[in-house]
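[Solved] Which block belongs to which protein?

Original post:
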Amino acid sequence: MSSTARPTEEQVVAELHAVEQRRQRALVEADLDTLADIFDDTLVYTHAHGVTHTKAQLLEHTANRRPYLDITRGELLIRLFGDVAVITGPLTNLVRTPDGGARTLAGVATQVLRRDEHHRWRFVSSQTTPYGEQR
């Protein structure tokens, strides 16, 4: 892509799906280099249980606990606002428990990404809200 050509909306959506897939793989594999690359330095990452991490805290948490065993996403709603994207959709995490077991956390995740000066998408915010009681 040349620096003067603007990507189509379809190309941007494909880029966003790709960076989300990279995030999922990197969390499961505890690939700290990839996570450092795709997470903005200003990242605010709120887990389903309410704990909020900065980028540095999330990288440390991932390195020390290796909490993610599997991550799956359902259909994503992607909204574009210039160089900002908001992604919303279902998320299911299979996570390691402190006692060595595993549990499933399911809910809806909302992620905000920005395109940086090098045209790379970076996560600036991510929050998962667990499914509650349906009324």
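(Second protein starts here: sequence line, then its structure tokens.)
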Amino acid sequence: MLQQVMTAPGKIEFREIPTPEPQPGEALIKIMKIGVCGSDIHVYHGEHPFTSYPVTQGHEVSGLVEKLGEGVTTLTVGQKVTIQPQVVCGECYPCRHGKYNLCESLKVMGFQTTGVASEYFAVDAKKVTPLPEDMSLDEGAMIEPLAVAVHAVRRAGDVTGQDICVLGAGPIGILVAQAAKGMGARRVMVTDVSSLRLDKAKECGADFCINTKEKDFGEALTECFGPDKADVIYDCAGNNITMGQAIAHARKGSAIILVAVFAGQASVDLAVLNDHELDLNTSMMYRAEDYAAAIELVNQGKVSLAPLISKHFAFKDYLEAYKFIDENRESTMKVIINVQAT
């Protein structure tokens, strides 16, 4: 079978290796679709701090169960599935208390351990999540980033009836906005400096889309939600400008959730944070319950994934996919790799 390997930043090879045989407790998955994540682009540029080379990438995935190892009874051959890409120890404090997304020895497929970018992939069956038969394989490959959004929304507790602000209209920001509305939020405001991205957020159901190059964030927050402003602000851009906006203009006593991987060293106004008794919280990946909720949101029609798919590339054109993203950063949302013909 073919396996993708990034041998160095910007360099991808394809190697012919034996198709793995599933061991007891494992499932062999025929990989169909892989989504390209912003973190994959960091690896492509040699800018990911926790990834060394060579590395086989891929962690947003959909596929079909090809074969089952001894003892696996939770899956059936031919079933549509996705994979949770975390590799955890199961022994540290977070793991023992159900928070394995915070494992002290966390590894993620495609970064610190082998990713799914091959024609077949053998994996612990416990990491395999079945997908509804009527869900497309493209949608299945986007359950992972949607689970990121679901987990982030849940970090603020129950958002039913609340007004939500999302800073950043990239794929995760738009998924957070959709997930929040799907989980009961009253209204959602999305900000960005790209009109193209804001148009996509509007297409995906955002109530207010604000270009902060053209409109003051604080004024927009009050105009959209009134003097009570937002109940929760999610920072899905992750830089000093957006976090500065959130802290400066959040309603006193409200919450800010950092979702994005923060770019560089943070310069946070702790005096205002303290004086306004703001809850500054963070979100890290997801757990199985977030995958289940993500699938249910798509099934119920509360989250639309298809509008976020920008382009497809063949498996052997992996490098071209990265080049396309680099050349079309503002207009590109999600690129999908077609590993095998459908």
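Accepted answer:
You had them paired correctly. Confirming on the second one: The chain has a mean pLDDT of 97.
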